[in-house]
Amino acid sequence: MPQITLPLSLLAGVLCVLSGCAEAPVQTAPQTSGTGAAEETGSARFGAATAILNAGVMANLGTSGDGSVKLLFDPLYDNHFGSLQELPPELAEAIITGAPPYDGVDLVFVSHAHGDHFSASMLVEMLLNDTDLWLVAPGQAYDRLKEQENWHHGLATQVRTITLRNGETTQTFDLSGATIKAFRSPHNGWPERHSETHNISYRVSVPSGDGEVMRVMHLGDADPSAEHFAPFAEFLAAKRTGLVMVPFWFYQSDDLDAILEETLNADTSVAVHVPVNVPAYLSEGTRPYFTQVGEVVEIPLTAQ
Questions:
Q1: CATH code of 172's domain
Q2: What's the pTM?
């Protein structure tokens, strides 16, 4: 597997959260190595996707300072189903309360309402803690949020609900300086399994100056069959995605290059949702995947 670097500023914050240290060391210079990402100081542009756990990813997009946008995809979950990593309480608390490096989050995305991607109770706590936070989630997840004891109607103003059928045209909207395109495709195993699950993929774009953008896509638990993406061929082809976060089983496909290049129109990819027992096709392969908190891959710039 290609080296995945852990920038000092991000890793130190995560380790302090988990170990209880008082203050993270200050990063004084850009860090870069191998195929990983580099952050630059001052007003320079940056783009990095950082592993949380399971399918959880933090993405920094745009220009440092007021123009940057921080996203979390599937960051909080209740169930590891015996094959995935458990979410440590200290890490969950850091995300919920906005402790570094999870401070200043603008948008949280939920792909679907399964317990290994979603925790209604923890997400309600997160919304209560940060009244400026936007949560984007499918209707099935929203229904679960409203069942929580500490939910109140005022929180609905912080939630953008996605209601789509499989293959239906995308929903497009702007939030917190980002342009979001949401679309629904079948959950892996369809139609035998999870046929009623609303699995939402998100493509998020943030301008980065000079006619370029940082654009990422998170597919949740999408089934890799090209036929499921055919209804979205026009919109996917129209804009190049810098980094696509795919569920790990995509890497098992014999047509992976075609899926990434032709179907998803992406420069690079990283596999997420990897089980504790890493499949050989990942560990013996050459493509990057996330298994540990703080691992980082670069988000390439693409044309607007």
A1: 3.60.15.10
A2: 0.86
